[in-house]
Write a structure and sequence with these properties.
The complex is a heterodimer of chains A (411) and B (1069).
Chain A lengths: L1 E6 L4 E8 L4 E8 L5 H5 L7 E5 L3 E2 L18 E3 L2 E2 L12 H7 L3 E4 L3 H11 L2 E6 L10 H6 L6 H4 L5 E3 L19 H5 L19 E6 L4 H9 L3 E6 L4 H6 L4 E4 L10 H12 L4 E4 L1 H9 L3 E18 L5 E13 L8 E7 L5 E6 L4 E4 L14 H29 L1
Parallel strand pairs in A: 3-4, 4-6, 5-7, 6-8, 11-12, 11-13, 13-14, 14-19
Antiparallel strand pairs in A: 1-2, 1-9, 2-8, 3-9, 10-12, 15-16, 15-17, 17-18, 18-19
Chain B lengths: L8 E5 L11 H15 L3 E5 L15 E3 L5 H11 L3 E3 L4 H13 L2 H4 L3 E2 L4 H8 L1 H10 L7 E4 L2 H11 L3 E5 L9 E3 L2 H14 L5 E5 L5 E9 L5 E9 L12 E3 L6 H18 L3 E9 L6 E7 L4 H10 L3 H9 L26 E7 L20 E7 L2 H11 L17 H8 L6 H10 L4 H8 L3 H19 L4 H9 L4 H8 L3 H10 L4 E5 L13 E6 L13 E5 L10 H16 L3 E6 L14 E4 L4 H11 L3 E3 L4 H5 L2 H6 L9 H8 L1 H11 L6 E4 L2 H11 L3 E5 L9 E3 L2 H11 L8 E5 L4 E10 L3 E3 L2 E7 L9 E3 L6 H17 L3 E11 L2 E8 L6 H8 L3 H10 L11 E2 L6 E7 L20 E7 L2 H11 L9 E5 L5 H13 L3 E4 L1 H9 L5 E2 L10 H6 L5 E4 L9 H12 L3 E3 L2 H16 L8 H5 L2
Parallel strand pairs in B: 1-2, 1-4, 2-3, 4-5, 18-21, 19-20, 19-22, 20-21, 28-33, 36-37, 36-39, 37-38, 39-40
Antiparallel strand pairs in B: 6-9, 7-8, 7-9, 10-11, 10-13, 11-12, 12-15, 13-14, 15-16, 17-18, 23-26, 24-25, 24-26, 27-28, 27-29, 27-31, 29-30, 30-34, 31-32, 34-35
The chains are: A alpha/beta (411), B alpha/beta (1069).
Chain lengths: 411, 1069
Amino acid sequence: MKAFLLLEDGTVFEGTHIGADKEIISEIVFNTSMAGYLEVLTDPSYAGQAVCMTYPLIGNYGVCMDDCESVKPWVDGFIVRELSRISSNFREDVTIQEYLEKNGITGIAGIDTRALTKILREKGTMNGMITTNEYDTIEEVLPRLKAYTTGKVVEKVSCENKYEIKGASSLEENGALSGSASFCREAYERGEREKKPSLVKELNGKGKKVALLDLGAKRNIAASLAARGCDVTVYPAWTTAEEILQDAPDGIMLSNGPGDPKECVEIIAQIKKLYASDVPIFAICLGHQLMALATGADTHKLKYGHRGGNHPVKDLETGRVYISSQNHGYVVDTDGMDKEVAVPAFINVNDGTNEGLSYIGKNIFTVQFHPECCPGPQDSGYLFDRFITMMKSCGMKSCEAQAGQNDEEGK
Amino acid sequence: MPKNPNVKKVLVIGSGPIVIGQAAEFDYAGTQACRSLKEEGIEVVLVNSNPATIMTDKEIADKVYIEPLTLKVLEQIIEKEKPDSVLPTLGGQAGLNLGMELAESGFLDSHHVALLGTTAKTIKKAEDRLEFKETMEKIGEPCAASLVVENIEDGVSFAKKIGYPVVLRPAYTLGGSGGGIAHNQTELEDILANGLRLSRVGQVLVERCIAGWKEIEYEVMRDSAGNCITVCNMENIDPVGVHTGDSIVVAPSQTLSDKEYQMLRSSALNIISELEITGGCNVQFALHPTSFEYCVIEVNPRVSRSSALASKATGYPIAKVAAKIALGYTLDEIKNAITGKTYASFEPTLDYCVVKLPRLPFDKFITAKRTLTTQMKATGEVMSICTNFEGALMKAIRSLEQHVDCLQSYDFSALGVEELKDRLKIVDDQRIYVIAEALRKGMDYDTIHEITMIDYWFIDKLAILVEMEQALMEGPLTIELLKEAKRIEFPDNVIARLTKKTEEEIKKLRYENGITAAFKMVDTCAAEFEASTPYYYSCFGSECEAVKTDQKKKVLVLGSGPIRIGQGIEFDYCSVHATWAFSKAGYETIIINNNPETVSTDFDIADKLYFEPLTPEDVENIVNIEKPDGAVVQFGGQTAIKLTESLMKMGVPILGTKAEDVDAAEDRELFDRILEETQIPRAAGGTVYTAEEAKEVANRLGYPVLVRPSYVLGGQGMQIAISDEEIEEFMEIINRIAQDHPILVDKYLQGKELEVDAVCDGNDILIPGIMEHIERTGVHSGDSISVYPAHTISDKVKETIGEYTRRLAKALHVKGLINIQFIAVGEEVYVIEVNPRSSRTVPYISKVTGIPIVDLATEVIIGKTIRELGYEPGLQPEADYVAIKMPVFSFEKIRGAEISLGPEMKSTGECLGIAKTFNEALYKAFLGAGIDLPRYKQMIITVKDADKGEAVEIGRRFEKLGYTIYATRSTAAVLKDAGVKARKVNKIQQESPTVMDLILGHKIDLVIDTPTQGRDKSRDGFLIRRTAIETGVNCITAMDTARALVTSLENAEKQEDLTLVDIAEIATR
C-alpha cells in the first residue's frame, strides 16, 4: 500500500506503508544509529515523535523482546528506507513488521531517508504526517501539521505506580560476564533464551537503595543499577519530593524522558526540593535538564537534536573523550548559568554544547547523554559506578556526621 | 595533548613489493601518513623497495630511499639521515617487523631514535601468540582454546574439556597435511594418530573449532591519552574459515543486534586499551551464530588491508589520523577532514551498505586450487557502495572485471539438487553463484545455511536477486519491475539479456520513465553534518546530491579497478599523477574507480571521487551528470582503455591519443600496415579465431610460436606452443571465455627483450631511457628482471630503438604515453608489441631518470610540446645510476599454481635495486626481493636438456662460491662430465633420499629447475617447484635469472656496506 510522509515545509515523500494502518501527525526526527532500532522504538523519550532511521536497512535481526527499553514502542511513526523481508537472529521473537502492527505503530518505508535527513538538518526538526490517504493538496493538512505540539508527554510515559527492582545478589544473576558466554547446544535446542551478557564485574552497589524518578526511563537505567547490586525503587513522574525522601534512599536517579523540559513545571518544583535534600543525585537526559532548570539555568531547543550512537563527549575533569549514546532535542544553556551553582562536567566535542554538569557543594552530577546505552556504546557505564561511589562516601560521611553528633550528645 | 615538539624528522618504513596479503593498501596508507606528517612541518625520510608506489615520490617525502628493506639497510639509513623517530606501523607486517627488530636489537636506543606510535612492548604483546593469549586471559577476553599435545591421551582429555568439534594442526608438515576437524572421540583418535606420525616434531595443536562462526572485524583507533573509538565494523559473509581478505565483506555488520554489536565493540576497545595501542588497530572476532559466545581471532596493531577498506567505506582517514596520533595529538584535536566541522574523536555512521569482493587470481593460475582457506589468495579487491545490500553486491560483481555481471555468470544449471548440495560444500570463489543456482532449484534456506553456515539474511538477499532474474525472464517488463531491478542494481545489459531485449531498448525505456542513477555522498555522518568533500556513490530511486560544476574545464580520469596480476599498482600511480597534473594545469578533476586499496580513491586526490564500477553504463551515469570536457584513458591500464569506445559514444572527447589509433596498435592488420609504412620489422604472424586456423598459421611459420588473445594486459592467456597438440590445448583455454577480438599467433624469436616508455606530443618524442630484460624473450616482460640503462646492447641498437619509437609514435599519432617492447636479435631490432598508453614500467623509469613522464604526458595532452616543457626531444642521456627492477611472486600463497616463468605474467609486485654499478644494483634487487643467500650453501639443479650447457657454467660458478650441488640423474651426469662436482639425487618416485626429501629437510638454499618447453606435463618438475616454494626454498626457473643470481652472489662476497641512493636527489638533478 502507498503511504506518504508530508512535512511542514511542504515536502511530500511517497513510499510504502508499514506497520499499523493509521494516520499520525508528529514531530519528525532522525536517528543515526546503525543497529538498535528496537531500543529506539521503545525509548520513551521518543514519545510524541516519529523517528527516521538514517541507516537504510532495518529489521535485519528482527525483534527480541528482551531488548525492549520499555513495555511498548512509544514513537508515533517509524520511517525507514528498507524493511528487511526476513529477519535473522538467534534470539528473535517476532519480525519488526509483526511488532509494529501488534503495537499499533504506523510507518513508511521506501523513501529517501537521506534526503529527509538533509531537510531536517538544514531546516531543523519539523512536524509531519504519515498517512495512506492521498490528499489533493498539502495545504489541506498544513495547518494541522503546524498546530501539532508534543505537549506534556512525561506523564503519559511514566509508570503508573511505584515499584521495586531488587538488586542482584550475585554476579551470576546478571548473566554471563561479557566475553565468557558459552554456547550450550542442549539449552539452545530446548529453546532456552541466553541472557544478555553483562559488563558488571563487581556488586559495588550492594545494599544501596536508589530512588528512580521515572520521567520516561529506559529499562537499562534501573537494570544498570540493579546489576551492580543496588535496590531500585521506581517512582511515577508525579511523585512528590517528600514521598521519595520519606523512603530514605541512598541516592536519587532522575531518568531520561520526552518533550520540552520547560513544560515539566510541577516536576521541576519537586526536583528543587530534592536538590536541597543533600541526597546524592545522578540525572540523565531530561533529568539533567530538569535539574538545571530547577537550579536557575535555562534550556533551549537544538536545531535538529542529537540522536545516535556516535557522539563524542569530553569529561572535562579527566580530558578523556567517550563515544556516547544520545537522544535529545533540548540542551542546557551554560552561558547564563550561575558558576556558583554548577559547572560543566562534559561537553560535546562536535558542537561544544553542554553534555553534563557538576553541582558545586552538592553530591549531584548530571549528564545529557545516555550512560545506560541501549542502543549505543557502553563506554560511559562507569558513571553508574561513580554514582555508587558517591552514595557510599556520602553514606560514610553522614554516618561520621551522625557519629560525631552522638559524640557531641554524649558529652 | 598537543604535538610532541621533539619530533622533527621521521623515518617512515614502507611495506616493500606487492605480494598477496600485502598490497596497494600500504601505499595508500603510507602516502596519506607522509602527507599528514609533512602538513605538520615534519621532515619525512622514506624507505621502501617498491618503485611503483606513490609514497616513493619526491612530492610525498623529503628523502626517498628505494632500497631493500633489511635491518642493515635501515640501520645505514638511520646513521646517514639521523632521524629522531621511526614510524613502523604504516608499512604492513614487513614494516612492523623491521621496526621491532630495530627496537629489540637496541639500535634505536643507542642512536637516540624513538619508535613513534605503538610501542615495541605493545607490538610484541599483540604479535606474540603466547603473550597475546596471556594478555587476553588477563582482561577476560576469550581466545579459541588450544593446546599442543604429543600423545593421544592428552588430546582426548583436552578435547573433552573444550568440546567437539576440534581442529587438529600437526606442527611442521607441508601445507598443513595430516590435519583436520574431529567431531567426536573416534575421529579425534584417528586424525591425531596420523598427525602425530606426520609431524616432524611429533606435536599436534588441538584447537576449539570455530569454523562456521560469524567473522566480525572492528577497526579501532586509540590515542596516547587513552581515548578510543571504533571507525567501523565489518561482517564477513563467508563464516570463519575463509581469510577475511578472500571473503565477501559487508560494512557495517548486518546481522548483529545492538547487543552483539556493542558487546564486540566494547571488547575491541578493552583490547586496544590493555595493549596500549596508539594509532590504528584491527580486531577480528569469531561470533557464535546462535549465542553470545565469541573469541578474539587476531589483533593487528597497525594499519592494514582492512583499515584501508574501512577508511574508504566510511570516509574516515585512518592512516592520516594514525600519523597525527603518532605525533602526540589526541583524537579530539584532529579535525575530520570530510566534514571540516567535527573531530576525529567520533564514530562514522553509514547510511549506505558497503560490499567488498576479493579479486582472485584463478584466471591466471588455472591449475591452482580455487578453494578458499585461511591463507589469503586474493591479489586485490573491489568495493561498492549502495543504499541496499543487493545493489552493492551487484555493483561489486561487475567491478571485478572477470566477465561476471550477475549471479548467472557462472553456470551451474547442469547440476541437480543433490549435486548442488555437494558443490555447496566446496568453499571457493564461486560459492555465491552455486547458492543462487540452489535457490533457483528450490533448495530451502535451512539446507543452504546448514551446509555453508552463511547467515539466512544473506541467503535471502541472494534469493531476492534470483527472484528478480526470474521476474525479468518471465516478464512483462513493467516500469515498476524495471524500477525495482535498477534499485537492486541490475545493469541494463543483464536486464536486456533476461528480457530478450537490447541494451539500447532498456536504456531508452529507463530514460523515458526517468529511471536514472542518483548520486549520494559519503560523509562519515549519515548527513547529520554538512560535508565538504565530494565523494559519491550511485543508487536508484533517490534524490541526486551531485551537482554539475562548470567553473573550470573538467577532466574525467578513469582508474584501473582491482589490482590483479598484470595490472597492478603502477596504473594507480599513473592515474594519481595525471590527476595532480591536470589539477595543476587548472582543470577540475574527477576520478572514477572502485579499488579501496589505492591512493586514487583517497578522498582528497581529485576534486571529485566517484566510487563506482568501471563499466560503460556506470560511467555514463556519471557523464550524464558531470558532462566533462574530456576523459583520459591512457593512464588506467586496460580497464580504462576498454571504455574508450563507449566514452566516445557518450560524446566525451578522449584526451590524448585517439581511440582509432589505440585500435590501430591492437588490431593486427591495421598495425601490420603501419609497420609496413614505417618499415619496421616484426616477427611474422597472423590472426586467427579457431584452433584449425591457428595450427595452419603455426605450421606456416614453423614452431615454436606465441599464441595470445589481443586486447589483454599482462600476457593473459599467452603461451609458447611447440606442437599442434599444444595449440589445440591453448586455444581451448583462451576460447573458454568468449573473445570479442581475434587471437594472435606469432613466430617466436629468441633474443634480448628491450622496452621503452616514451612521451610523444604528436611531433617530437621523449624517451627517458631504454630498459633491458635479463631473461630472454619468452618470459613476460613483467616477470623479467629489467635493467636501466640497457647494458649489453650496442649504440646502434639503441639508436634504432629511438628511431623506431619515433616512427611508431608518429604513425600512431600518439599524444601522451607510448610503451613499446622490442627484441634485438644481434643488431636486428623487431617490434613485439606497442601500447599507446601508460605501462607497468612508467613509475620505475620516472624515478630512476628523474623525468616525471606522467606529468609530461599530461601536459602534452593538454597541448604543450616537449620543447615547451624544457626537454630536448629524443633518447635522453643515461643516468649515472643503474636501476634494476626485480619481479616478486606470491607463489607460496596459491596452492597448485605453476611457478615456472613464461609468456603469461605471474608476478604480483616488484622491487628496485639502484646503485652506481650494475653489480651492486643487482645485489640490492635480489636482496629487496627477499632472496638472501646463503644459509646452508646447498642447492639442487635439475634442468631441461636445452639448458644443460648453461647449467654447467652456472653450476661451476656456484661451486666456486662453495655450494654443494645436488642434481637429478641426467643433469648430474652433464655437470660431472664437465668437471663440476655434483651429487646425484633420486627422482621423486625412486627410493629415498629423493629430491623431495632434500627440500623437505630444510637444508637447501636454492633450486634451479627449468621446465621442459611448453607446458610441463611431468608432475615431477611441478611437484619439485611447488614443494620448494611451499617450504620457503628459492626456486629459479629460467637460466638467465640463475646467471644473474650467481653474479650477484659473487659480488655480494666482495660487497661491503651498500651505498644509499636518495631518489629525491636524482629527481632534482
